[in-house]
């Protein structure tokens, strides 16, 4: 599903809080057996999704068709449409947090979150470098694919040429980047073992408390529905 | 020069591992359409393994010591954890399996160790992904039926073996790249 970012309130919520909530919701997707508990979670997650991120119509249609086929197949085979609906709801509880968190968390916020939980400095460095170079290496891969297209080789249709046509030149570029970045960091006196400071440390704000209370209330309500079922 | 376990990690090691992590992430994205065509949970890594293993092999060959796979796959697990902790779970299980091989062999300096580590890594991703998938499927009539079918050894064992073999293919491709980089003077590695 392709999601375009919007200015959204979830984007300002503490990223650590979002990570914890996402883990809790994924656990719910595995644990919940009550239709109503699942439906409550799905409805809240859907509201958050439509409020927080711009969802393309074709993506909604695509997911809708997939869910209809999934539910129809399950219902027809089992003869139990309640269980079929439950399966679809559990699937949505698993999918929606996975879409929401990355779409509403800036890479910089994620790094600040990892710094805030006192991850070792070398690990924060690795995370920062990975975030920083992921789009650059993707652009490099795109350039290599386009260069192949100019030579009349459509790599998308010829996986057999991926190794020689895409991965070999890409790895040579990556290794060159690794050398350049190392020299760049060393000449700036960077020490991977030393703790890093940040100009915008992660802070707990009143909005985060409200969001945490809302999330706790939701999880209690879901737990209550599951218990009574 | 061989790197001992006691030798300190250097900045260039961290940078190299981070860029190999980027490579792993890019291969996951490139192979995703092929992976999603494989209907068995966990076994979807078969499409990823031949390409991801290139970067794992390269990282192991360059860093040589135990902890190399943990540094590459661990960072990927942390990043992908924001999408779903289930992805992190199978990556952590896989890196533990690969690190166990490295620990027994005293590092990743040897080609055979790198081969075994790759095979262990991808067999573990398959088995852990399988376990998570089957756990999720349970609870509905069709899901229980599917889970019952999926837990049969004649389905599970071949999938794990094919995953390991896909990792071995990636290892072989990775060693070709290591050789090319070495010949071009871009990589100082033990073979």
TrEMBL record, chain A:
| Keywords recorded for this protein, A-Z | Membrane, Transmembrane, Transmembrane helix
| The organism's taxonomic lineage, starting at the top | Bacteria, Bacillati, Cyanobacteriota, Cyanophyceae, Gloeobacterales
The subcellular localization recorded is:
Membrane
**Main subcellular localisation:** membrane
Q: Which residues cross the membrane?
A: 20-48, 60-77, 83-104, 209-228
Q: Origin, by domain of life?
A: Bacteria
According to its record, how does it sit in the membrane? Multi-pass membrane protein
Protein name (database record): Glr2053 protein
